[in-house]
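Researcher: Sequence of Hydrogenase maturation factor HoxX-like follows. Predict its structure.
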Amino acid sequence: MIRSATMINRVAWRSMMSLQKAAVRTAASSSQQGSQRHKPPSQQPPGPASQQPTRQASQQPMRQPSQQALEFSPLPWVDFTSPDLAQTAANPRKITFLCNSFNGLSQRLYLELLSRGHHVTVHEDPRGEEMTRAVEADQPDLVLCPFQTRRVPAELYNNPARPALIVHPGIPGDRGPSSIDWALKEGTTEWGVTVLQADDEMDSGDIWATCKFPVNRQATKSSLYSKEVTQAAVVSVLKAIEAWEQSVPPTPLDYRHPEVC
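Model: Prediction complete. Tokens:
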């Protein structure tokens, strides 16, 4: 799936969602009354790209950000009004998302980056060479993988001028796909999100930014992910972009460091 947009607000999103729902109802009604065969893509009437988003791989209709992503309530430990988090980007960037799914975390990051003036293109469920082709087509300033469990091709992260950032739901040094499960199982009282440079080994790249948060022992995995992890991801990504723009290099992952688990 590809989506490209400029700065939007919540009202605009709600309007877009309403229009798309109406379009789906109209299309379904027409299909029942007429032929069951669909027109080939080449015969579809042209229109603005923002009105005709499609998934690259499966060609399914695009999912818009959910109501939960739109109605965002910051947690007490996050201050999105602070100057380093609230400011509009001085130099709007072209950012390409590569994600398994356009889930709640990806949607929140998408909206936060748009609101700061960045231009974001989302590719949902790209695999292998599809990732490379997507980035080559977009020519972004940086690549962001907010929910990506597949290995990023080496040609994407070996470009020093264009970082490929991985959003990992764990503290520095924690690796693997079950970070939150282990945090809850071990009863940890503090967890976090780390933005890493993509590397040969999963979750082992240099650290661009990290944000820690207190863990409620009564929290479920889904609630922790949709609230604390999502908001910590926003903070970490904004800090990572700021560090990159200021030419601050990422910190190598060093297990001898006391803050690395």
